[in-house]
Design brief:
42% helix; 3-stranded parallel sheet; 6 helices; 163 residues; single chain; Pyruvate-ferredoxin Oxidoreductase, domain 3; alpha/beta
Length: 163
């Protein structure tokens, strides 16, 4: 959820049209909760996305549930620490151990920010510098340690996105 919210905030700051549609349900951490983010230069008719240009998958249950939601020739970014397998169709697939990298950074919860860095390197939707400004804006007051680890996670993800 946070990954999508951060992307949406950054795109809004660039004066783009944005929708962020979270799907809160009975899922818990490690389940298949998700959100849909649409970024456009034109008004957006609906926040619902049937087939996405990019799908970022952080665990195996989500891989099973959402991998078919990426368009042909789209991008599938997969957290290989917690999900294995591949796309059955013609998509560009990047697999990196986001959770393992987050653990090495000292906070397993920043795996999503590692994935975000990988995504930004591929799609160039928002510059890293602008994303860091969003981190500062969204960080809880006085929590500089959280801000710093999120920044390091983003930068590690950008390094991965060379693929």
């Amino acid at each position: 959820m946070l990954l999508g919210k951060v992307i949406a905030e950054a795109a809004m700051r660039q004066r783009r049209f944005v929708t962020w549609l979270p799907a809160y349900g009975p899922e818990v951490r490690g389940g298949t909760s998700h959100c849909m983010v649409t970024i456009s230069d034109q008004e957006i008719g609906s926040p619902y996305i049937n087939k996405a240009d990019t799908v970022i998958i952080l665990n195996n249950p989500s891989l099973k549930r959402f991998s078919a939601r990426v368009k042909d020739k789209g991008l599938l970014i997969l957290n290989s620490s917690l999900a294995s397998g591949g796309a059955n169709r013609k998509v560009k697939m990047l697999q990196f151990p986001f959770t393992d990298i987050a653990i090495k950074l000292g906070n397993i919860k920043v795996a999503n920010m590692v994935a975000l860095g990988c995504y930004l390197r591929q799609k160039k939707i928002v510059k890293t510098k602008e994303m860091l400004e969003v981190f500062r804006f969204m960080a809880p007051a006085g929590k500089t340690d959280i801000l710093e680890v999120n920044q390091r996670a983003l930068q590690e993800g950008v390094k991965l996105g060379n693929g």
